[in-house]
UniProtKB/TrEMBL annotation:
This protein's record includes keyword Cell division: no
Stretches of the chain forming a coiled coil according to its record: 127-186
A biological-process GO annotation: RNA splicing
Superkingdom: Eukaryota
InterPro entries recorded: SPF27
GO cellular component: catalytic step 2 spliceosome; precatalytic spliceosome; Prp19 complex
Protein name: Breast carcinoma amplified sequence 2
Record key words, sorted: Coiled coil, mRNA processing, mRNA splicing, Nucleus, Spliceosome
Localization per record: Nucleus
Protein species of origin: Ceraceosorus guamensis
One Pfam family it belongs to: BCAS2
Family assignment from sequence similarity: Belongs to the SPF27 family.
Source species taxonomy: Eukaryota, Fungi, Dikarya, Basidiomycota, Ustilaginomycotina
Tagged with keyword Nucleus: yes
Amino acid sequence: MSLIVPSSSQGEGSSHAVTQRAAYDALPYHDRELENVPGLKSRVDKEIQAELQSIAARDKASGGAIGVVKDRLPVEPKLFEHRSDLQAELSRIAEGNKTKAIDGSRYALSSPSGNAASDAHAWDKALSQAEAALGHANVRRSNLELEKKFGANLWRLHNFQQESMLRQYEKAVEDMRTQTADLNRSRKMSQTQGGETLSRLESKWAECISRNLQVEVATLQGLAEVEELKGKREELQTRLAQLDAEAR
């Protein structure tokens, strides 16, 4: 069932309102043909399956829908053209390889042994490694002290922020559900009223068609009676003429 709704809009560059007509092909809250007409749903499902099969056949003939869509996409940009390390990292992620673990040998304390025990460069390297390990230990201790001092409050603040965001999201979801329910309720009311109007107009249209048919049938009957009366008049005129001739 279709619904045509007139609406007025102001035309650009014109001071007069332009009347437009918006047509709706279906009223899902009012139409019940699939439920009331026997066999209609099976015919609709059959048509849908036939259309899907025809679409699949066209996609197969054209090389597949994926190929068609891929041809329409823009050229893939090259990321990090001047950063080989980042390109290698992207390739690693794309291939699904795991990242390399942090090498902790830099912070291990070890002294030269064997022939290296008398090598000054080996001792310099060991001293540098010990200094790095000491610096790493100092950083870890500082981080632990900072975490002990501020970690609890920071975690509480983080939880508070997360709970606040959760409440905002829940409120947004609830508002959206309310808007959706209001919209569906408004659509249902509008379509129900429009459907009742369409049903009333359809009944009136059928009544007018029936009256027109009755008038047409009555007109044809009247014309037939007129022709019959004309024939009788001609017959009477002929008999009257014969009687006049006999009387003379």
